[in-house]
Design brief:
By secondary structure, the chain is mainly alpha-helical. It has two domains: 152 residues, Tetracycline Repressor, domain 2 (Orthogonal Bundle), CATH 1.10.357; 128 residues, Four Helix Bundle (Hemerythrin (Met), subunit A), CATH 1.20.120. The chain is built from 13 helices and no strands. The termini are far apart.
């Protein structure tokens, strides 16, 4: 009698294309808020009536969040897929829900769409978008991979998420190069956002150490990085307050001062236990920070002395 041969069960073929739900997860809509808020600050700071520029305003919102920010997320996930396979295997690419090289194809596609929309919005918007995309790829892609250096990587994220987005919002509404005061405030709030990016690094210290990512908490130690994040976050806001006072905007200066004082109170508690309270401080402190951004944008919209 012949022995029964056990044949392996037929395996399901691997997915050839990603599902829409996996693509949406890869694009990470929850991350679109910071650049879209900064874009809104740029729009407000321009002082241009919304009714006059609705079509380009809507296009700019799409550019800031669903296109540019989403592109940076896809690029980062593609070049981090090997690390994510160890630390976060359920993410769309390492889990196989974004199969093959689809992650790379989507990164290229979203980059191209971002450039097309930016070009339609004028040369200044196109220039800012192009620089933002260069930084997005340089942040994640070898051989540059700015994220390996906490100083450079956080700067790239801060200027893209805050500065370029603010500049783009103003340029979309004005249709030309924004006033130098608008650009200055975009730079100042970008500088402060470097500290916010450092706060985000506290949740991944162990993984960064094991994979060779030189985030500031890894490079400087927890305590020093926490102090640095607070100083970098607060210092530009002091400058904003001083400028608003000099420019005759005491009400907006008082609002920015109030939210800064609230942040300083939270910073004291954060510095007592940085590892345990980084996420807590990021949630409450950053909310106050962006409220100050909008107050500053309102002041700029009212006009400043020449």
């Amino acid at each position: 009698m012949q022995p029964t041969i056990q044949r392996p069960a037929a395996q399901q073929p691997a997915a050839q294309r990603p599902s829409l739900s996996a693509v949406l997860e890869l694009l990470k809509p929850i991350t679109w808020f910071p650049p879209m808020w900064a874009f809104a600050c740029g729009v407000v700071s321009s002082g241009v009536a919304l009714a006059e520029r609705w079509p380009v305003l809507l296009a700019g919102i799409v550019l800031a969040g669903p296109l540019l920010c989403a592109t940076s997320q896809v690029v980062n996930d593609w070049f981090d897929r090997h690390v994510d396979a160890i630390n976060e295997p359920n993410r769309p690419i390492p889990s196989g829900r974004i199969p093959g090289r689809w992650g790379l194809y989507l990164a290229i596609l979203w980059t191209a769409m971002s450039l097309v929309v930016a070009a339609l919005l004028g040369p200044w918007v196109f220039g800012a978008a192009a620089l933002g995309l260069v930084l997005a790829w340089a942040y994640s892609a070898p051989p540059v991979r700015l994220k390996q250096n906490g100083w450079l990587g956080n700067a790239a994220c801060a200027v893209s998420y805050e500065g370029f987005a603010w500049f783009t919002g103003a340029a979309v509404m004005i249709g030309a190069l924004p006033d130098w005061r608008i650009i200055l405030f975009a730079v100042l709030y970008s500088a402060g956002a470097h500290g916010i990016m450092t706060l985000n690094d506290f949740k991944s210290i162990e993984g960064d150490r094991r994979t060779g990512v030189g985030s500031l908490p890894v490079r400087l130690g927890v305590a020093r990085a926490a102090w640095l994040a607070c100083i970098i976050m607060a210092a530009p806001q002091f400058v904003v307050i001083a400028l608003l006072i000099v420019w005759g905007r005491p009400i907006e200066a008082a609002i920015v001062a109030a939210v800064l004082v609230a942040q300083l109170v939270l910073m004291v508690r954060f510095l007592q236990a940085p590892l345990a309270r980084a996420t807590w401080f990021s949630g409450f402190g950053v909310t106050l920070y962006v409220l100050g951004m909008m107050a500053s944008a309102v002041a700029l919209a009212q006009g400043m002395p020449t």
